[in-house]
Design brief:
By secondary structure, this protein is α/β, with parallel strands linked by helices. It has one domain: Glycerol-3-phosphate (1)-acyltransferase (3-Layer(aba) Sandwich). The protein is 45% helix and 15% strand. It contains eight helices and seven strands; from the N terminus they run H-H-E-E-H-E-H-E-H-E-H-E-H-E-H. Strands 1-7-6-2-5-3-4 form a seven-stranded mixed sheet, sandwiched between helices. Helix 1 crosses helix 4. The protein is globular and about 45 Å long.
Length: 236
């Protein structure tokens, strides 16, 4: 059944990409419509894969634009976040490989998602500038500061680009700990497993004003380790 469920998830991806591409071609693409489709996709993935989803901490998120930062366990992190994060409009920084998926990638670009190519410094800087413009326009931004999916669930070294973005824009950082998506579809996996538990724990916002990068990195990393590694009982 897992292969069938995986195909159904791909079908859901196509279902939200197609109208986005049509509206983009017509010049009638609306942020609100994108928001609704993204949240529908998150809920649909939960339903299709029979995920037992638990989310806490949404009430601490301010109504203004924020920068969400989470650990990265799986491609399934994104739909789980859209199913749980409270901000009405969220756009995500994603690796260039996701934008190479036929139709899906074109839909992502049209919907203002932010392509990150870390192999090209100039393009990486442009991505951060794109994110900053969205934040100033009231759009919350999500990124995974590890930069890549974890192999074993442990938290990797956090990259600093998102922290510079927070200091530059004044947007608070909201740390988010995700557990369980690695059990649905691990790095390198092709088939999604169903019937698994996923936990999304949203931390209190962190004011980046007047902070130095190192202290922000440490604070976010400590939150992720405590709520992912320690809670999951991952040995050091």
């Amino acid at each position: 059944m897992s292969l069938i469920d995986s195909m159904r998830v791909l079908g859901a991806m196509a279902r939200i990409s197609a109208p986005t591409l049509v509206e983009a071609a017509r010049g009638s693409l609306d942020r609100g419509a994108i928001d609704e489709r993204a949240r529908w996709f998150g809920r649909r993935v939960v339903e299709l894969l029979d995920i037992q989803l638990e989310a806490t901490g949404a009430g601490t998120v301010p109504s203004r634009a924020v920068i969400y930062m989470s650990n990265h366990q799986s491609h399934l992190d994104i739909p789980m976040l859209y199913a749980t994060l409270p901000s009405p409009t969220i756009r995500m920084l994603a690796k260039a490989e996701l934008f190479r998926i036929p139709l899906w990638g074109r839909g992502l670009r049209a919907a203002e998602f932010i392509e990150v190519d870390r192999s090209n410094h100039g393009r990486a800087v442009q991505s951060i500038e794109h994110a900053a413009r969205l934040i100033r326009d009231g759009v919350s931004v999500y990124l995974a500061p590890e930069g890549t999916r974890s192999v074993d669930g442990r938290i990797g070294k956090l990259k600093k680009g998102g922290f510079h973005l927070a200091i530059e824009t004044g947007a608070p950082i909201v740390p988010v700990a995700i557990r369980g998506t690695i059990d649905i579809m691990a790095r390198g996996g092709l088939v999604m497993r169903s019937g698994r538990r996923v936990s999304v724990r949203i931390g209190p916002p962190i004011d980046a004003s007047g902070r130095d990068i190192s202290s922000l990195v440490t604070q976010v990393a400590d939150f992720l380790v405590k709520n992912v590694e320690n809670d999951a009982g991952i040995a050091a």
